[in-house]
User: Fold this.
Amino acid sequence: MYVFLLPGVLFFVVFAYVPLLGNVAAFQNYSPFLGFQGSPWVGLGNFQALFSDQQALTAIRNTLVISLLQVIFAFPAPIALALLLNSLVSPRVKRLVQSIVYLPHFIGWVIVISIWQNVLGDTGGVDQLFSHIGMSTSHLMTDAGTFKGLLTAQVIWKETGWGTIIFFAAISNINTDLYEAAVVDGAGPWRRTWHITLPGIANVIALLLILRIGDVLSVGFEQIILQQNAVGNDAAQVVDTFVYYNGVLGGNWGLATAAGIFKGVVGTALVVAANKTAKRFGTAGVF
Assistant:
């Protein structure tokens, strides 16, 4: 058993824990040519620069808004779909629907954005349809005002089917005798869902919600950077793209590392707070 665990442990040690040593760059004017020992120390200067940078504040605000939209709309979508699939009587139809809704998860974001561009873009199918019937339409793919909602819709379309796997597995573990007893007592489908299904998967919902809240400052780097040029930085700049442009491209490693530490601290605090809140409501929590 320990031999099977070893590759996974090594993965996290090499790619998660060892890189933590590089966080020292957040307190230095780090230069790859000087290394950690040769780079001058600046104390909390990088953090002061981070919170006084207007682009950084815009990135944090955009990240929080996008993450909130995804928690409100994208997170419940797999739960609703799992409940819908569970209500299907025919196992064959259920398997067919499952297979279809899983497929978008395996499509890369480059292809997903291309599909949406061909449908909702300036020369997409929707625009051509409205033009053909003499109506004007806003170009959603380049509209900064609707960009955050567009991101959420893309996540729902791509990941909802895949997210149902865990919820559907949790529903399948509920004792069927409870449903039979509820039917005998005259409970309809909605009452069975409310009083049996949802309480039966409450621990799973709480666990995944806590983990999602802890990842609140990560909203999909690849998805956003592919569309950022179309709507501008004011609407599409998030923490991950800020780190990429300032650290990887700009060479300001100290500022980028400070932003990464800020993400980690906020994520940890939110996980602890959400876990305590979940336990107060009677669910198991994460730890």
